[in-house]
Amino acid sequence: MALSMEFGFSIGSCFKAPNPPVLISASPNKINFTLRRRNKRFLLRVSAVSYKEFAESALEETRKRIVLEPSHLQEKYSSMTGLDGKTELQMLAFKSSKIRLLRSMAIENETMQVFDFAGFMEPEYDTPIFCANFFTSTNVNIVVLDLNPLHQLTDQTDYQDKYYNKIMSIYHKYAETFPWGGKLTGESIKFFSPLVMWTRFSSSKEKHKALFSAFLEYYQAWLEMTIQVREEMEPSHVRANCEAQHKYLTWRAQKDPGHGLLKRLVGEAKAKV
């Protein structure tokens, strides 16, 4: 399985990111020093943004209600250095009795940040996939935040009733702050829910504060689903859930810029491990 599929990695399933430079400096002090010399405005826009709080808050919320243990990915891929000797990719990965993988991934350098947070259930549960893909550069923030449906809503209207209709108020709460980011392809739209936040915006403290609030509300809604969901006992339904996750990950690996980014980070050989 490709590394990007194992991670469930993406920097956004419905956009093409600006061409990213090869990545990351490891020391915050070094970043600030370099950026201060180059461009003070640049420092404010990129270095002042940190997605670490997003991951920490989500994990804190989870531990209040669920017993987590480290995933095997935590040991294998928690930190990797890029081919340039400076690039770093950092990941946290956990699992529980119901959650197959709860994973946070962060990529950062002087000119961009990528944050990818995902939650996948064991195949005995049909809960949606939690998806937060955030890309921040000097000029733009690109955000995809969703509870991706495991099964197409056009085929299973009861799935929408079960998981989405009661929480649509979350989407409407943030729709004005984060307007729609543009057209989605027909292939992509089937993997998103009515709850999807797909937006672009310029950096500001107010916007990032609102994004943090939206991220937590979406995550808390997903976390509640994982707690309330009942185990599926019918083997055919379990197989269908497993196949749906595989289809979703295959789509992301084939269509997302994230796989190409991983190849630039760690080389083609490791990206295919």
What does this structure look like?
By secondary structure, this protein is an alpha+beta fold. The chain has one domain (3-13, 20-264): oxygen-dependent coproporphyrinogen oxidase (3-Layer(aba) Sandwich), CATH 3.40.1500.20. It contains 12 helices and 8 strands. It has helices spanning 3-7, 28-38, 40-47, 52-63, 72-77, 157-163, 168-174, 186-189, 205-228, 235-255, 257-266, 268-271; strands at 69-70, 79-81, 88-95, 99-108, 112-121, 129-137, 141-148, 197-201. Strands 1, 2, 3, 4, 5, 6, 7 and 8 form an 8-stranded antiparallel sheet that branches. A hairpin with a 7-residue loop joins strand 5 (112-121) and strand 6 (129-137). The chain is globular and about 50 Å long. The model is unreliable at 1-44 (pLDDT under 50). InterPro entries: Ferredoxin-dep_bilin_Rdtase.
Chain-averaged pLDDT: 80
- Straight-line N-to-C gap: 6 Å
Q: Tell me the domain tally.
A: 1
Helix fraction bin? 40-55%
Based on secondary structure, the structural category is alpha+beta
Low-confidence stretches: 1-44
Radius of gyration: 18 Å
Annotation, overall tally of beta strands: 8
Strand content: 15-25%
CATH topology: oxygen-dependent coproporphyrinogen oxidase
Family: Belongs to the HY2 family.
Pfam family, one: Fe_bilin_red
Keywords: Oxidoreductase
Protein name: Ferredoxin-dependent bilin reductase
